[in-house]
Here is the input.
Amino acid sequence: MESVYIETTIVSYLVARPNRDLLVATHQQITQVWWIERSTEAVEKLTRSILAKDVIPTRAVRDAAHISVAAVNNMDYLFTWNCKHLANAQIMRVCQRRF
Here is the structure.
């Protein structure tokens, strides 16, 4: 069976500045606690590597994290509307050569 990583707000909540909206701030806090308890070192290492090799600009750390989560968890597809960094054929070719 093939697997799909559907991009959600999880990574965005993880790296965003604290929000003034109480519900959003709560979601951010829950996400951050979950990430600390459940995240793997492999995801963080791959994210740093993607940024260090200039595959994706440093300002797009969230996008690098999405790619890393999908890759570390062996997803067959990453489903997204983000064509700047995630669904970008040029970046895919760079990744295939560098990783």
In short: The first helix runs from residue 10 to 15. The chain has a mean pLDDT of 83.
